[in-house]
Specification:
Elements lengths: L10 H8 L27 H9 L3 H7 L30 H18 L6 H16 L4 H13 L7 H18 L10 H7 L6
């Protein structure tokens, strides 16, 4: 008769294992490691991920991993931007691309959510938000969003309530990232109606 022992690492063990690794990336953000001690691809910026996985010094990384001041789109047909078959040579999304895309999607859903949703629409949206949080690719971000949902039940009774609830969730992330809070009374101008042209 044989027995199998499963070893589960505690958060403390993961932190201790990572003490010899960089804790802050070139972007100034904290480096997020998976439970296995490897840097999380979707929880870090591409620049920070490459910095940690290449084991470069900050000076060498600045040369090896240049970050353009402004993203310049090259011609899609350019050989340096395509691979065999003509596909675009994109990288997997990093935490910044995922975050921006996710918030754009969520705020757009809020902007098109009915003013007076049916019970089914309310139930469906609440379930969507929960599932979205449970399947978010960045485990670190996922844990924060799930905690937020547990503390702050999604407000799905109306478009305005959901838009403001989502704005507050976004503001909590903004604060953690050192970004300014957005005035949630203006969420409809930003995500639904647009800003007044006469100002």
């Amino acid at each position: 008769m044989s027995t199998t022992t499963t070893s589960v690492k505690t958060d403390k063990e993961v932190v201790e294992k990572n003490e010899s690794k960089p804790s802050v990336g070139l972007s100034g953000r904290k480096i997020v490691y998976d439970k296995d001690g490897k840097p999380c691809r979707t929880c870090n910026t591409l620049q920070d991920f490459q910095f940690v996985t290449a084991g470069l010094t900050p000076a060498a990384a600045a040369v090896a991993v240049p970050v353009p001041a402004k993203k310049v789109e090259a011609e899609p047909s350019s050989p340096c931007n395509t691979i065999a078959g003509g596909y675009s040579k994109d990288y997997p999304p990093d935490v910044e691309v995922l975050g921006k895309s996710s918030w754009t999607l969520l705020h757009s859903i809020a902007a098109t959510y009915p003013e007076n949703p049916t019970s089914k629409e309310q139930q469906d949206l609440k379930q969507f938000v929960t599932l979205f949080g449970n399947f978010y690719p960045c485990w670190f971000c996922k844990a924060d969003f799930v905690k937020y949902i547990e503390k702050n039940d999604p407000q799905v009774n109306s478009q305005d309530k959901f838009g403001k609830w989502l704005c507050e969730a976004h503001n909590e992330v903004n604060v953690k990232l050192g970004k300014p809070k957005f005035d949630c009374n203006l969420w409809k101008q930003r995500w639904k109606d647009g800003w007044d042209n006469d100002k």
